[in-house]
Amino acid sequence: MESSSWGIAPRRAVRSSFVGAVALGAVLFLAGPVSPAAAELEPDDRASLSGVVERLAGTLEDPSTDEFAASEGLPADGILSLQVDDAGRLAVSITTDGADVVAVSEAVAALGLVVAVDPEHATLTAFVAPSELDALSRLAGVTSVSHAPQAGSGSFAAAAADDILPIPTGTCRSIPADAAIPLNVVKARSDFGVDGGGVTVGIISNSFALKGGPEAGKAAWDADVRNGLLPGPGNPCGYLEPVIVHDLPTTVAGQDDEGRGMAQLVHAMAPGAKLAFATGITDETAMRAAIDQLIADGADIIVDDVLFPTEPYFQESLLTQKIDRLVDAGLVYLTAAGNFNQVAEVDGEVRPIGSWMSAEYRPIDCPDGIAAASGLEGAVDCMDFDPSEAEAYSNAFTVIGVPDGDDLQVEVLAQWALPYGTEFGDFSLVVTDPAGTPVEVSELQLGFPGLGVVISGASTEPTAYDFFIVRAKDRTDARPAVRISSVENGLPAVFHSLEYDTTQGDDVVGPTVNGHNGARKAITVAAAPFTEPTGLEYFSSLGPVYTGLPPIGSETVLPFAELETYSKPDILSLDGERNSVLSAPPGSSGGVYQFFGTSAASPTAAGVVALGLQAHPGLTPDEVKAALFGSAIPRGATYVGHSAENTTGAGLIDAYGYLSRVAELPVPPEPNPAAPAQLPSTGIDPTTPALVGLFAFLAGAVLLRRRVILGR
Q1: Which residue ranges does the record assign to the Peptidase S8/S53 domain (predicted)?
Q2: How far is CA 250 from CA 193, 292, 390, 472, in A?
Q3: Distance between CA atoms of 104 and 712, rounded to whole angstroms?
Q4: Could you tell me the residue range of the domain that residue 640 belongs to?
Q5: Both 381 and 417 in a single domain?
Q6: Least reliable range by pLDDT among 14-23, 340-349, 534-543, 600-609
Q7: In whole angstroms, how far apart are CA 486 and each of 308, 343, 410, 536, 571?
Q8: Does 513 fall in a domain?
Q9: From CA 458, how far away is CA 129, in angstroms rounded?
Q10: In which element (H, E) is residue 396 found?
């Protein structure tokens, strides 16, 4: 094992502020049913239900079939699809009246599997059979039940090509750390004597050791340790502390152990760092729970690659707000930018066309037939997509042609800048195929201010679909910002062209960083291939980020006079590194594969950040950013009309430059152990009985969560 010449001070005092802050709003991360004692609560009025839940409630219908998904306008698999576990239970997001969320969770547990509870925001996540959904909707305290659409992750996988660098022999790793040389990690670790020791990196993704089932996942995990790709007993490189793992206690589609692939990349950069994993992909409540679980495990850094397409674009979600608060309290948080960019050649240049947005709804008359297709009552008007004096009531998205026999599935969302969770039935989306026939659109999640559409099928030629945004003009005079965006997760490209493809006036084309992945205080990571670190992966999501409403939960919901904007992503890291987990085709095993996407770039960046925290245990998040961004190698603008700040951020990570800047910072004095730690937001002494009780509450939640540690 590499040794460090740096004195490593305990990080517990540095972390105490954000551990205390989390305890004040702890989220329970549950492994299974809790006591059903509250199941006898008197039923109240029926809760609000999403369309999918309304249809399924009290039935024996199978929500996992392709036919059911198609009837709801949802994809059969992948992002935005329904999450159904191997017991036939549907993943649902539940809100309550807040009076007694723990009692409600006990009642829900009598009907299904509760996996997360957030007492602060009175929300739950559960898997419930269709036959029990009606009973769930009538539980006292339950105010809404929505299906939880599957989130995405910022990754792709492909079998490693023969011309990739050869795998060396005579090392303790079966697969080399591909990004270590181009990011200057080898020199940085050697000259500064660091390997990440004393630092804990938390990872959030879909699963860790469930691919092919729990037994196969555990066997693959054991093999990774034996091959030097992960720490744990038997690691040939001498890194023996096992990864702490909190996997979902049920099996659902899409559990490809991406978290284990991410852990391999962190370990490749910072092999001495302690690693912890928590799944957080079911919904936002589960994600907030995963963050709290990792902090309870001692995380100094958290990195995630979860992409929630239903996080509002124009309003900060509860998850985004949580991340920003924790960064203020001392946590270093990194997140994948996403893989939602789409490109097309326009007038001889490559342009991003992954999204189209206007700062204001511009009403014009709709063509015949659109009013009826919109489902809105009364008179309607349509969005004018032409920013000039001309008018255009639709915007044509042309999807690529595919070979005969191949299928095509493209997911596109429309959003309007109205408050999340309020009534928004005054706007609608209509999409028509080349014959003018409307395509089924879908409600994505209860409270989401927008609609989605899945374009499926196959054509050998590019095919244009017309998008209309429609307003019930007799019901509202609101003219909010509107946006249409692809949530197709990168490879292969699906858009051939976009009718209005140029940023002009109030209209902006291209930005695709969304939700918590664009949190102001997080480090948002873009991707470049390790074999060509001067480039940018074409799918890497772009900024800037726009907001037009106060954060969710604010006392006021009045829109801003103008949209606010800030640049993202923040930094460029590398992807395409080899790993043993993510394979192509999915499900293959026993090989060496390349890990593509911002899901690979972000844990690679987190490993580099860990080296700096070992070298200087007192680093604040702002100091990490200053050193990381200030030492980055600038990259020019990748696309005409899009600045470097909104494509590659500060530039490519340079680990040696980062450690050099960290070394110049003054070392803080040792903390006085007699002085009680102070919470920055309240100044409360964490030794007071009330806060001790909250810590005990969090500890109890941790014990309820299945904890898997290699070798135990």
Answers
A1: 516-651
A2: 42, 20, 54, 43
A3: 34
A4: 12-23+153-339+568-663
A5: yes
A6: 14-23
A7: 13, 11, 8, 19, 23
A8: no
A9: 34
A10: strand 395-399
Looking at the structure, do residues 498 and 623 belong to the same domain, yes or no?
no
- Phi, psi of 374, deg, nearest 5: -75, -25
Q: How far apart are CA 373 and CA 391, in angstroms?
A: 21
**Among 138, 151, 140, residue whose Cα is nearest residue 49:** 138
Does the pLDDT value for residue 707 go beyond 70? no
Question: Taken in order 431, 433, 438, 442, is the CA torsion positive or negative?
Answer: negative
The C-alpha atoms of residue 618 and residue 330 are separated, in whole angstroms, by 10
Q: If you average pLDDT over residues 582-609, what whole number do you get?
A: 80
Interacting residues of 355 by C-beta distance below 8 A, sequence separation 6+? 340, 483, 484, 485, 486, 509, 510, 511, 512
Rounded CA separation 356/548 (Å): 16
In this structure, what DSSP letter does residue 263 have?
H
Using alpha carbons, list the distances in angstroms from residue 635 to 292, 322, 336, 640, 657.
35, 31, 19, 14, 16
The backbone torsions φ and ψ at residue 303, rounded to the nearest 5 degrees and listed phi first, read -130, 135
Q: Is residue 543 part of a domain?
A: no
- Tokens in use for 303? 């990195």
pTM greater than 0.85 (yes/no): yes
Distances (CA, A) of 581 to 26, 227, 235, 586, 592: 32, 13, 17, 10, 8
Report the sign of the C-alpha dihedral through residues 525, 307, 273, 260, in that order. Answer: negative
pLDDT in tens, 465-491: 999 999 999 989 999 999 999 887 655
Tens digits of residue pLDDT in 650-674: 999 999 999 999 999 987 666 554 4
Chain centroid offset of residue 178 CA: 25
Q: At what angle do helices 185-192 and 598-615 cross, to 10 degrees?
A: 10
